[in-house]
Structure formats: structure tokens, C-alpha cells
Recover the amino acids of this structure.
């Protein structure tokens, strides 16, 4: 089994050449992100990922987390790894100094997060959910709540969870039934929550649940949901965990993948909870953390794709099978065109997804810390447009890449010991949690495109058309091939957007019927845009005499992406535009008529 | 968890309206296939699948087959089910009366096989491999071998295996090392084989291994491989199993899916083997059974897709979540456009794959039993062209459909108890065994298209263009929409074929670089052809006053297939034609340069 090595060269290339790290480092509060500091962080994170987390990935999958009498034991080695994670300051990376954080830009934290997730996705989910909980408290928690919880969570001493889902309330949070009854300065929370990632575990001394619930007088639907902090142990005045709260783990799920990550059924019985922000505004707070979580899940798509690619590449280089088509000798399978095609599909899409995600991460930094308010708004609009694309496209493609990873291994890919199958099983959750691809696509079509009359997306389309003029200057035939694929992609997006804007108001079913194909179209076009930018940056780098092997590969990889991925664009637009007619054409009974 | 119900209406529609069962029944030896007999068989198979095999599918997955001391125990209930399978005469269905078979056409056997596989893919693999072994013995076995083995195997008393793969010899059988030393009337076989499906089990009293091995003087490579019968127990003169042979199961694999099907590592130590046919011709015999097995694996794609669709449909009809886009009420998720789109993708592609597979099965009947030799040759050429398409396209699409089935379930799809994840895990092997999709695609491009200068595929393209004239007569707008999608598909195939023919000789890497996208293009176009035929047949049926619900759904489903699946055709052709440049563009070291 191959081990994970962080793709540091590509990470640096994307950070510096595409995502504009030097500009981000000029933002207020981001000044820590000097080239030397960032380099040191990347190196250290890469070591931690390879040396500590990667060795636990397969064993963690085999052993899984185990439930017994309400307690959850994580797999062997996880506790020690978590301690190293907290002690290394990794939990504190993206947070402000006020709570002990390191105050690094989202962009830098993104690169670290990718590495940790590549090496051990199950492990990485605990920090991911904790970060979401920290964001919610930062956003809406009272000073007292912040004081009690944020320091502990930023240091990694305590972890956090998001308790949204109930058996009858999944994507549809209007159906949440968990109750919150006010008693003095706190509430008593009662109800059942399911699918709670790291809802119970043995990694940290306390767990801070953020729980959606309804007060007795709350209006029905999403406007009557409030957000509460419900700690596993009630903090004592000295800040240490005290009395056990009535929040218990009734069982954990038997899942397709991420076996090491405990997915808990949580039962709250008059558990003490503290209101976050105002009553009935819980969903709005939740959405803020959900957007960050959606971005992170998109990044999981990138991360698992990278890991699957590395494993497949290692196998393809060593497995001798079949003869070279030209010289007839037995060769490693990387010499066979179809194996090469699969590896290039893995490599090119992973690089495109990474570039898009990091560019969006940088935009988040601009959106949160630019001095000018209009600037912030403009960057935020772009981030809002792209979050569902990063989440939906990178996860769908991540699954495809993990599946290609199995395929490259042939029969060995189906054997669990090889490890390739685990990536596919792990990746399979990413298009589901934090909002399915359908939910992302509806968000994209409805909230992000129809709502502002297409203003943001049309601005982006114009920018892409302007960028075409830059591409036109290159004399490289690979760049020109890519340019024409990208132009077709942009036209396809533009046609599909026109259809959506014309349809969304009068026939919503028709507009939303093509939402997922549209999201894929947006993804491959945005990814193609980044790969084309990468190709131009590589041309500049080659002229400057930088790393030839890497930069020439980048240009060829961009061209491959154009011919093998962007080539789907016009077909996707046709599906969006023509395909709505047949989607709802059957009466429900007709599905049973076979 | 939903239970399997055979889609009998669609099976009958495809058998009668698309695959020409009445014409097949006129072929010599196929006269048993009267409408009444076929109906009775379909009903009985449907019952056996739903009542006996389906209830063991999930439990079989959970329990798995277990190895201990060389013996393999199949999951609870499998033994009893296998007895019922043999006693019901299901094993005998497609074989000649000479060995106790029922002599039914391949077309009818195909419908039965689909149902058994849908209900329990792990179980169905034992019969599948046995049938392959029977075919090889029928084809090349001596009269003595046939007499000893065929009756037992056709009755189901004994099962069969195919022992091809060795650790160093997977797709590349030239590397087979297992040895066969002649001693009197038999050979002594020594070596190790891996990935042997049902290589050891407790379902039957004997196991008949068909083993590829080399005699001491054999030439190197594929021209030095011979085929041997190696029974687990040497048959006594009275036909009963006697002495234990030196063929032992060293272990079974821990796999991603098909847990109930034991995948054995077999060790042969001076095991007694009997030559099948002539020395050094083993590979040719193996290819005959492999073609049948490839077709069957393609059918597994159809079968698992159907089962995944049924499960997703049942969930989508009962799960209440989200509000109707138009009237704002909480509805079952089948009302949401994207869920509907996923169900239609599942339904339309499953129906298209089924129709193509059954049409090819009928062609197999014509190819093997038509009176006229030229007729047989013509049908065989079409079968040869389409086998890799049925295998490659139906399995790739089967995985996609099983994955959509998980997606329709949302979070519940990731929980193993739901059953949707099992279909994805089971389906994942189908693009690998009996030749990966890459192997199928190379076979298609090299042997089936380039070798005859494109004659067969061009004949098919002409037939499709002729069929366009039939479609032109319809006044139904859905049929016309489908017609234009199909025409674009045919043009895309034609363009891609021209490229392949122009390139295969002078630049094989370029021709084979697009082999898999080309195979997918062939698949969706052939599937679209069948769906368009189905739409015309449905129009005729509606005029004749037949089942309105079913037939109207068929026309809408055909249109959906055009807009959502065939729409990819021109992009795939572009990838085949333009995409070869970048596939091999990187030096191998450049993959490591990140």
C-alpha cells in the first residue's frame, strides 16, 4: 500500500500563481502569512499528515469506532493522533488571536485542511465539525458563551458538533421537533438527533453540541428554530468539565465508509442548553456555519481525489501487465493508453478542483477582511455563487475519481486490503452530507442565480470572456486547444443561464429539473478557467526558467482537461435547456407500471 | 427495506416488441419457446427470485462466505436456495436436451438470468461460472469428459469455475505459470490461481474447475496455454464424487462487495487434470466461454440497476421531505424535480441497457441456429461488435445507477441497513471482472472495428440511418425530439469510427486513447436506438389500445434518454477525436513532479 505525500509543489503553485497568496497576505489581519511562515506551515502539515494521520487511515477503517453503553471508542491510535493535532496548534490555525488562534488566512488553512483530509478523512471530520461550531459561536454567541467555550475549542481541548438532522427532518429542517423549554438562564432540551458526526467519542475531555430545537411558542417551520449550546459536561466555574449533561449517544451507525468517524444517534433528555443569539434565528446562524462546512466538504472531494490518484499512480507504475502497443514488451500498466487516460482524468480534475477551491478560499479572505465594504460585498457574491459549485462539483467528481482509482487497480481494487476501495466508500458520503448535490444545485439555480437576476453569474461570464483575450495571446497549441474548449464552455454556461433566468419564475419545475447538470456545467467551466489560468502561469514560469517538468505537465494537463472534461459542456447545456420537458413527464403511478 | 418485484411488463415488452421472441421461437431447436411456455417460465422465475433469493441478499452480504481450514461456508439459507435452484431446473434452462437441458433460447434464458441476478447477485455468480464451464466442455471437451461432467453440471448437482488469473497474470494471460505434466491419461496440475469465483463452497457435492496451465514443452505466451478439467473430487466409475483431488482453497478475499460469493485463492498441488480439446489451444476455448461470461456480466449491470432503481423508487415515494415547488405542501421526495431526474436517469438507462442486451441475446440465437451459414456469420459479426458494448457500457452505467440509488436515499443511503449501498458495492466489480472496461474498449476498437476495416460497424450505422426514416413518420413530438438526439448520436459514432479507422494503423496509442469514451458513445447510441424503437412500438401499441400507462411512459422515457443521456454523444466524439493528443503527453516522471 502506498503512503500519502502532500503535493506540495502543486499546493504552492495554486496558492501563489492562482489564488494570489501575496495579495491575501496584505489584507488586514492576514499579515502573518509571510512566504516563510506559509512554507513552514505547509511542510509541517505535510509531515503530520504523512507520519501521523496516514498510517491510521486503513487501520481506522478496518477497526471502526465502537459503541458500548453510551461510550464510543475510536480506533487504535486516534487518541494519540488527536493529542498531537491539538498540541501542534492545528486546531487553532484559522482562528483569531483573541481565543488563542493563529489568525492565518482561510487560504492557508485550506491547504492544511486538504492535507489532513487526504491522509485521513475520518479523522479530519472531528476538526471540521468543531470549526463549524466555533464559527457559529463567534458569529452569534454571547460574550459569556464565547468566554466559556471558544478558548477550549480553538485549542482543541474540546470538540464541537452540529445537531441538525432528526429522523423526519433531513434536508427539510422545517420539520425539526426537538424541544427547548426555558428554565432560568438556560433551556432544557429534549429530543432525538441522528447523523451526528463525532457526536460521542474519546478524543477530548468535552464535546460541545450545537443543537437546533424549538421553544414552546415558536412559529411553525424554519422561522421557529433556535440554536443552543449543549455541552456533554457542564463547565464548572473554573472552566473544567463538570456534571454530565443529559445528552447521550444511543448508538452509532453502520456505514458504507468513514468507519472511524462515529456517526451518532443523540438523545437529549432535559439536557441543559444555552441559547445562541436570539430565539427563532437558529437557522440563519446554522447557514453561516453550513456554508463554511459546505466549502470544507467540497475540499474533501479534492482531498480524497488526490489520495486516490496517488494510490492509483503508485500501482500503475509498478504493476507489470500487458505489452506496449508499439514495442511489444511487457510493461507497467501506466504505459497503456487507457490507464494513462484514467490517471490523467484523475490528475487533471483534481488539480482543477483544487485550483477552484483555493481561489474561492482567497475570495473568502477578501470578502471577510477587505477594507472597502463594496469590495467585500462583491467578493462575497462570488463566494456565494461558487460555494455550491465547489461543494457539488468537487464531491461528485471526487467520487468519480475514487472510482477510477479502483478501476486502475483492476481486480486488486476490489480487495479491501489494497485501500483503493476505502477511498470510494469514504468519498461516497460527500455528495450527501451538508446538503446533497441536488440541494446545492437548487441553491445555485434559485438563490445564487435567479434571485439576483443573474447579475453575479453574468459578471463572471464577462470576466471569462475577457480572459479569453489573454489566452488569445499565447502561441502554444495546447493553450489554444484549451482556449477553444473553454470558450465553448462559457457559451454553454451563458445559454443555460439565459434559460434558467427565463424559466425560473414561470415554470420552477423546469428550471430546477436541470439544476444538477447545470451545476456540473458550472463546475467544469470554472475548473477549466482555472486550468487555463494555470497554463498561462506555467508559460510565464517556463519563460522565467522555473521547474520545467512540473510546468510543462501543467500545460498538457490543462489541455487534457479541455478535451476530456470541458468537452461535455455543450451536451450539459442541451440537457439543461431541452431536458426539462421529460423530467416530470411521468405520473407517479407510471413508475410502477413496469 | 423494499423487496424485489420482477419488471415482468417491461421484460415481455422487450422480448416481444424489440428482441423478436416470435422469430427466435421459429429457429431450429428453439420451438419450445412458445408464448405460453415463456410466460410460465417468467412467472416462475419471478417468484423464485422474489421469494427465495431476494430475502437472502442483504443477510448474505452481512454474513458473507467464511473460510476455515480450506472449507468455505456460504451464508445462512444459500444451501437450501441452491437446492431449490437445481431442483427447479433453473440450471438446465439454456442447455440442450442431450445433457438434460431444457433447450430454451438464449433470449429467454437472459430474462431469467436478469431476475435471478437482480434478486441476489452474489448467488447468481455460481450458476454464471458453471454455465461458462459447461460451454467450454460442450465446445471442446472429449465425449468422455462430456459424459462424465455435463449431465451433473446441467442438473446443478455439480458446479463449475474458471481458473484463469494468477498473481502476475490478470488481464495478461500470456504470463500464466501454472504447470501441467502429462502422466498416463491425465495431467498433474500445480500452481496458484487467484480471484476464483465460487472456487470453494458448500452448495454442491462437487466442483469442476476449468484451469489454464502450461505443459513443459509449451511455447511462451498465449500460444502455450492449455485448458484442463480439475474436479474437486475425482468422479468414480459410477459417476459419484470419489477421491479428494489436490485442488484446495487457501483463503478467500475480503472484498468491497459480493460478500456472499466466495472469491478463492486456489492452490493446485499435483492435482489430477484432464485436457480439454488440444494442447496449447486453451486460450481460444476460454475466449468462447469468456464472451458468454462478458455478456452475462453486462447483464449484471442491467440487473443491479433494476434492483437499485426499485429500491430508490420505493424510498422516493414514501419519504416525506421538502415542499412542492408549486403548491408549498410537504411531499414525498419523488415530487422534487431533481429526485425525479435521478429516478428517470435510473429508469431510462436501465430500460435502454435491457433492450440492447436482449436484442443481442436474440442475435446470439440467430447466430448459433440460423439455417443459412451467411446468416449465421452476419448475426455473429453483430454479436461480436456488441458484446464489449453490452459488457462495458451496461456495467459502467450500472455503477452510476447504483450510485444514484444511494443518492436518492440521502443520508439513509450511506447506512448499510438501507440496502442501497450494497448495490453500489456489488456493482463495482462488474467493470473489472471478465475484462475491465478498458479491455472491452480495446477489443471493440481493435478487434471489432479496425480489424474488419469498419465493415460491421458501418453496416450498423447504415441501418440506424435507415431507421431514422421510420422515426420520421411519427407525428409525436417526443419521438421527434428523440429522433434528433439519435441522429446526433449516429453522426458522432460515424465521425469517431472514421477517426479510429484512419488512426489505428499508424498511431495505435492515439486510437486506443479514446477507446473507453468511444465505447460509451457506442453504448448510449445503441441504447438510444433501442429506446427509439421502443417508442415506435409503444405508439403502435397505443393505437391498438394496449396498456396506456406503460406505453405512454415508454415514449416519455425514450425522450428523457435522448435529452439526458444521448446529449453527451457529440462531446464524447470530440474527446475521441481531439482528446488523444494529451493522453500520452506526459513523461512518466512528470506524474511525480507535483
Amino acid at each position: 500500500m502506498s503512503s500519502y505525500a502532500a503535493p506540495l509543489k502543486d499546493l504552492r503553485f495554486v496558492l501563489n500563481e492562482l489564488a494570489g497568496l501575496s495579495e491575501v497576505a496584505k489584507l488586514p489581519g492576514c499579515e502573518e502569512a509571510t512566504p516563510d511562515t506559509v512554507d513552514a506551515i505547509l511542510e509541517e502539515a505535510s509531515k503530520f499528515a504523512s507520519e501521523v494521520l496516514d498510517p491510521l487511515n486503513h487501520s481506522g477503517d478496518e477497526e471502526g469506532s465502537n459503541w458500548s453503553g453510551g461510550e464510543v471508542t475510536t480506533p487504535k491510535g486516534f487518541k494519540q493522533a488527536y493529542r498531537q493535532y491539538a498540541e501542534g496548534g492545528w486546531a487553532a490555525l484559522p482562528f483569531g488571536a483573541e481565543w488563542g488562534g493563529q489568525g492565518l488566512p482561510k487560504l492557508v488553512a485550506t491547504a492544511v485542511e486538504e492535507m489532513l483530509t487526504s491522509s485521513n478523512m475520518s479523522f479530519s471530520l472531528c476538526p471540521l465539525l468543531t470549526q463549524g461550531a466555533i464559527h457559529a459561536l463567534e458569529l452569534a454567541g454571547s460574550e459569556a458563551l464565547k468566554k466559556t467555550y471558544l478558548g477550549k475549542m480553538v485549542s482543541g481541548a474540546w470538540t464541537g458538533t452540529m445537531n441538525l438532522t432528526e429522523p423526519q427532518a433531513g434536508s427539510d429542517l422545517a420539520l425539526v421537533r426537538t424541544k427547548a423549554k426555558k428554565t432560568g438562564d438556560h433551556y432544557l432540551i429534549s429530543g432525538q438527533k441522528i447523523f451526528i458526526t463525532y457526536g460521542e467519542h474519546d478524543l477530548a475531555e468535552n464535546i460541545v453540541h450545537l443543537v437546533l430545537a424549538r421553544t414552546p411558542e415558536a412559529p411553525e417551520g424554519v422561522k421557529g428554530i433556535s440554536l443552543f449550546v449543549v455541552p456533554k459536561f457542564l463547565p464548572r466555574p473554573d472552566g473544567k468539565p463538570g456534571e454530565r449533561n443529559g445528552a447521550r449517544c444511543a448508538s452509532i451507525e453502520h456505514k458504507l465508509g468513514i468507519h472511524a468517524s462515529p456517526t451518532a444517534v443523540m438523545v437529549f433528555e432535559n439536557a441543559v442548553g444555552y441559547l445562541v443569539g436570539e430565539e427563532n434565528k437558529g437557522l440563519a446562524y446554522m447557514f453561516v456555519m453550513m456554508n463554511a462546512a459546505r466549502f470544507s466538504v467540497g475540499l474533501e472531494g479534492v482531498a480524497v481525489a488526490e489520495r486516490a490518484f496517488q494510490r492509483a499512480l503508485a500501482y500503475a507504475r509498478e504493476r507489470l501487465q500487458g505489452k506496449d502497443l508499439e514495442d511489444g514488451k511487457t510493461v507497467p500498466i501506466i504505459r497503456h493508453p487507457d490507464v494513462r487516460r484514467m490517471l490523467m482524468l484523475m490528475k487533471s480534475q483534481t488539480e482543477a478542483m483544487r485550483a477552484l477551491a483555493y481561489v474561492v478560499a482567497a475570495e473568502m479572505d477578501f470578502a471577510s477582511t477587505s477594507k472597502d465594504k463594496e469590495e467585500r460585498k462583491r467578493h462575497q457574491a462570488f463566494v456565494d455563487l461558487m460555494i455550491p459549485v465547489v461543494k457539488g462539483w468537487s464531491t461528485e467528481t471526487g467520487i468519480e475519481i475514487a472510482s477510477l482509482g479502483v478501476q486502475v487497480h483492476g481486480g486488486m481494487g476490489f480487495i479491501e486490503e489494497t485501500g483503493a476501495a476505502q477511498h470510494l466508500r469514504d468519498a461516497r458520503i460527500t455528495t450527501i452530507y451538508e446538503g446533497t448535490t441536488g440541494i446545492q444545485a437548487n441553491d445555485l439555480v434559485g438563490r445564487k442565480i435567479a434571485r439576483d437576476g443573474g447579475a453575479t453569474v453574468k459578471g463572471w461570464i464577462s470576466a471569462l470572456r475577457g480572459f479569453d483575450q489573454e489566452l488569445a495571446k499565447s502561441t502554444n497549441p495546447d493553450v489554444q486547444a484549451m482556449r477553444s474548449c473553454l470558450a465553448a464552455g462559457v457559451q454553454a454556461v451563458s445559454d443555460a443561464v439565459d434559460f434558467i433566468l427565463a424559466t425560473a419564475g414561470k415554470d420552477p419545475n423546469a428550471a430546477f429539473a436541470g439544476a444538477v447538470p447545470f451545476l456540473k456545467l458550472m463546475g467544469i467551466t470554472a475548473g477549466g478557467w482555472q486550468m487555463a489560468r494555470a497554463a498561462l502561469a506555467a508559460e510565464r514560469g517556463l519563460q522565467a526558467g522555473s521547474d520545467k517538468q512540473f510546468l510543462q505537465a501543467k500545460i498538457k494537463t490543462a489541455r487534457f482537461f479541455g478535451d476530456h472534461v470541458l468537452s461535455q459542456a455543450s451536451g450539459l447545456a442541451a440537457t439543461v435547456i431541452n431536458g426539462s420537458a421529460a423530467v416530470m413527464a411521468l405520473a407517479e403511478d407510471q413508475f410502477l407500471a413496469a
About this structure: The CA atoms of residues 17 and 382 of chain B lie 19 Å apart. The longest helix of chain B spans residues 282-318. The mean pLDDT of chain B is 96.
